[in-house]
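Q: Here's a chain of 346 amino acids. Please give me its 3D structure as tokens.
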Amino acid sequence: MSNKAAVLVAGSWGTALASVLADKNMEVAVWTRNEAQRDEINNNHRNDRYLPGVDLSPNLVATSDMKEAVTGTNAVVIVAPSSAVREVASMLKPYWHEDMLVVHATKGFETESLKRISTVISEELGCEEGKIVVLSGPSHAEEVVKRCPTTVVVASLDEEQASRAQDLFMNTYFRVYTNRDMLGVELAGALKNIIALGAGMSDGLGYGDNAKAALLTRGLAEITRIGVEMGANPLTFAGLAGIGDLVVTATSRHSRNWRAGFMLGEGKSLDTVLSSMGMVVEGIRTTKAAHTISEKYQVQMPIAHQLYNVLFENLDPKTAVEALMGRDRKTEMEVITLETWEQWHT
């Protein structure tokens, strides 16, 4: 087995995962289109745009040549923004082989097609979707590069591939669990970004802890509702990829989604928010995708719906909150059909 791994691309999360691998004395190639970023990583062992003030391992080498990045490796980690995953996977295709472990850690959907990221990658590589591994869970890049204790989950329909990914990443500060529910892990990782946007917006409006706790709880309920309708295991949403990632993304200033929501709550326009962030905010794209998915499956997602109106229909955030609070009376427990109950327990 090769002691080399490749990470595509060199954003904050990609660099953090590359650092985890470098700490295992692996030779790690990070691919980036940005030549200035490449030179900074190689010459200064820094990636200050995404992880300012962090010294990177000399085992981590950057390149702008895809062939150079992946040649000689049996493990490739794709951490590109959701909008770029198809192109990156297409560039990987000429060098991909059946023994190559492919892990992705991108949390979102392909907005135009509404396809999950594992589907996009498998289509471009021409491999079975079940061979792809999804890495998700509560894991801020800013803390991982400081070697703070972190626990994540890797999911695949192929147990051997999941086990390989577990062995690839697991070390003394980065603990990795496996999960067979690839669909649920992928959905949870993407959809929680919507609720994190809402939590930030609530904080920006000054609504306090009561409102945010309710938002997270009811947000988890609607994530689970759409996930189960699409075929996921409900228990996944109570695990690391679900409630774990939701809590960390919706309560931390490290979170781009929380920060974007906070600025929206303060009254800033979406264009202003996006220009000031300087990095991709996946929750914005995911909100648009979830709005369409909920209509397709005829599943109510009231929080996602109101956030969609704020982001894309110019609804005032306060009006969105009033609409949520003024909804018809409901019971807290979801109405569960016999068919759904049997699905949950098989």
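Q: Can you summarize the key feature?
A: The two ends are 37 Å apart (CA to CA).
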